[in-house]
Amino acid sequence: MGKAETINSTGQPNNNNSGDTSTTTSTQQTSTQLAIIPEVASIKSISPKDFYVSIPQSIIPEDNSRYENERINVVVTGENFPKQDNSPQNKIEIKIGKFSNIAIARAKVAENGKAIFASFNNEQLAKLNTGKNPVIVEIGGNATDIDPQEADEKLQVTVERPVSVKTTLIVFIVTAICVFMLLIIIYLLTRDAYSLTRKTKKPNLSTTFSENKTKKLNLLEWFLVDVQTNTYSLGRAQFLWWLAIIVFGYLFLLIGRGLFRRTWEFIPLSGFGYTFLISLATLVTAQATSEIRGSKGSGEVNPGWSDLVVHGGVVALERVQQIVWNLIIGIAFIVIILATYPTASSFPTIPSELLALIGISATGYIGGKAIRKPGPNINQVVLYAPPEESNLPPDYITIAGANFSLGGKILNSEGNEEVNTQIKDAGLIVQMVYLKDTKTKEEISETLVEIKKDDIVTIKPDPNAPMEFCRRFKIPLKGLKTLSDNNWLDKFLEHYKKKEVKITIINADGQKAVWDGSIITPEREIPPPATVPEQSKSDDA
């Protein structure tokens, strides 16, 4: 028709015969051209959209013969699929996956040309990555169009596959090695400060027996122990707990995604940055509260996991709930990471309510530290005794440290003992008992002696709370009415030298501190010189 219009425009004569012939010829040519141009095929949807591949994902070769007969039939709907024949231009293939991990199957066309069918066996599907996989239909090597009105933005299927136990174990081991290497680096950076080598000057007094044994900390204690109280710190423990969980989870997810999905990229924290921030703020606030309010009581001699739930030997419920929620959320995080790491693209999302609960739990823990009174901590125990050749029993014992409740007596400005009228509470109680040996630390229960406040003399009141606490007190051993037998005092010096004496300090609020010769934090003051007993003065005269 365009050619005919061109001829007419030149002004040449035109008759009906010639016009009819041109029109007929042009129409025939157009019909012939439309007949040989195929309509472009387009796809609308695929079924099923979710594939479950029985063969586990594995980074090492495994025997998958038991899955050979399993197949998945796939149907792709669309328009204008060509008729089935053996010509290369009508060859139809369905491709699932991306990069080198692609499953390919030859498709058959339905009679109406609106659907194609293909069957994938497990050997083919085993190549697919877990998660979203794109679908491409090729006809004669050319990709088809996707119907923009009915299809998704990108035609894809979701593949779910189990992960072999061996593979998870390998990823776990690789992650553990990375974490271990980080610990080695930290140890090398801190090894000069790792060993405590504090020394205390002992007084040059032949009649004074001072016990201040320095203990060497292992790596765990170095990070967890509060040297002021010789106890495991809950603030440090929960901070290290979340630090270890986040570091391990991050490396585990990073390595797992890299091995399975060939995706090496930074992992979004999805709110766990706030969790770490809360744990850091809790640690700093707990330390500041201890500085302002005073430290808790040291409790038993050696650090133990019970220190996390007790405050000076007394169970604190705010500490219990802090540990419970940290354990539950932390363990749940690890379980979710282990179960979903092949498909996860980020850390599990923390619900806002759970994040608020972590903050409330930390606030309760800090509030408990602020409300409770500080507890006793023993730094030094000194026994004052006459010369050995005198064969006399020891005179008295002094105990130094921090946050001791007051004794019933106090030394006045002239150095004389007088009744302490400033006591606000029940005062201090001291228990002393002999041990069978230094290894088992087993107590000889029948030798237990309990000394009440009326037999305890305050030597050095706490300048910050002089009517409530003291930093040094003494117990006159002669004349004690609570001795278990008449020979108890005669044996005291012998047991003390062998470190077979256990002393327990109990404050008015029940917090306690225990000593058996093993103390981390030494007293930084030289103990006062021994006073000369009255009997010795009269003998000299």
Explain this structure to me?
- This protein is of the alpha+beta class.
- The chain is built from eleven helices and 26 strands.
- The protein has a seven-stranded mixed beta sheet with strand order 12-17-18-24-23-19-20, with helices on one face.
- α4 crosses α6 (234-261) and α7 (272-293) packs parallel to α9.
- The longest helix is centred in the N-terminal third of the chain and has 30 residues, at 165-194.
- It is rod-shaped.
- The chain starts with a helix and ends with a helix.
- Mean pLDDT is 81; it is low at 1-37, 196-206 and 532-541.
Brief synopsis:
The chain has 541 residues and is an alpha+beta fold. It has 11 helices and 26 strands.
List keywords for this structure.
single chain; 541 residues; alpha+beta; six-stranded mixed beta sheet; 11 helices; 26 strands; 33% helix; rod-shaped; disordered N terminus
